[in-house]
Amino acid sequence: MWISRDGSSCAPFHPALLDVSLRKVLARMWTRIGRCFSLAKLNHKGCWSLQQLVQREWSQQKAHFCLTSGQHSKIQSLASPLSEAPSSRKSRSVGISHVCTLKHDRQLQVQWEDGSSSLYPLVWLRDNCQCPQCVLQSARARSLQLSKLDIDTGVDRVLVNEPTKVSVVWPDQHTSEYDADWLKRRCFSTMARQAMREELFLNKRVYWGSELQIPTASFQEVLQDDKAALDWLTMLRRVGIVYLKGAPQEKGQVAKLSERIGYLRLTFYGHTFEVQDKLDANNLAYTSGDLSLHTDYPALQHPPGVQFLHCLQQAKEGGESEVVDGFQVAQQLRQKNPEAFRTLSSLVVDFTDTGVDYCDFAIQSKHRIIEVDGDGHVVRINYNNATRDSVLDLPVQHVQPFYASLKAYVNLLYQPENLVTYRMEPGDMVTFDNWRLLHGRKRYSSDPGHLRHLEGAYLDWDVVMSRLRILRKAVHEDA
Predict the structure, then answer these.
(1) Greatest Cα-to-Cα distance within the chain, rounded to the nearest angstrom
(2) What is the pLDDT of residues 245-270, one digit of tens each?
(3) Which contiguous run of DSSP H or E holds residue 408?
């Protein structure tokens, strides 16, 4: 079976090679971490903790290692927070050996110089012609209308103009030219499609529990240096939380950081919000009591993906923050109590929030507590006990199983091995994945000289991932 280099089939991995390859790759990986964080440094404990996590994942993935045919061994942990996406490596261009048309299947077969081959449906090739007639070049947007696309098109002829170009002349004599690298990256093989998904979305995660020492970077370096900003956002995506140190102890810093990325998410609590004791508080966070583990804003149909919290002043006593990897605990629930996982990932629960802040509001939403994609992967946690509605739009026979399932998940969240506790000090800023992490706060007491005050802000993952892709391209093109 022929597939492209990006999706090359794997030759069997010889067990004798595993330990040697593993040691070499781990050594290279952690040398690279030292280079990557020359500006945005991990704290010492954080680096050691992540190394332990990655090594643990290595041991779990040994059975999946393979050597790609015709290449050196490049084993990479699925959990490595600094795993390079395909686009961040300067790959050697592969040439085209020859092409042929499979008329019956309406496909073009490209034979590559490395011995592999790829299949491309003719309709897809015609739909994705890159010429100025078919694409608005200034916007990189398809101008060819689907109504004018012949989905059963054939070809008049196919030419290999040079080792890195293939031209297709269609029955109407329109000519399309395709670059070899462009085609290779869009191969339809399973592995190539998986590689492209990872390149575009960085979906691989480092899962963790109480052993995590939160990765730490410099606030000022993130603002000033593209490499530091890229490292920060990559770690935020992989691990779910990054501490930024050294922010000025004044309001406006979460907005300044958001401008480094794109723009803030405006909500009913404003562009930014103040977390402090408030008379007649319109949110449980604006009190000094305990805050149970939760995600923010499940009462919105589309909860914000990323949250920033900047400590301006800490309480005299108490006020420690708590975080849990909600994805990791969801996996634990799936293993320990599959029925509870099925219930929380299938039943839709009501959330509500009402009050007055930036403006008056009365919002309602419906979410699954554990949201999964079509492949069963957990993609978001929606849980806030304070705003879970008394309206429960379920058949009566599902109510008791729902409560039992939710209690099972919450009990796992609070297991000591899953919980990370830390205390923010003035100038600290925590940035975290609000779709993945559940966060809370311990009760605190203040006096006039120690009035606990945090400033917060939200961003959408679309905005964050956009900046991450732009930074990745800029940093690696300059390398």
Answers:
(1) 82
(2) 999 999 999 999 999 999 999 999 99
(3) helix 399-413
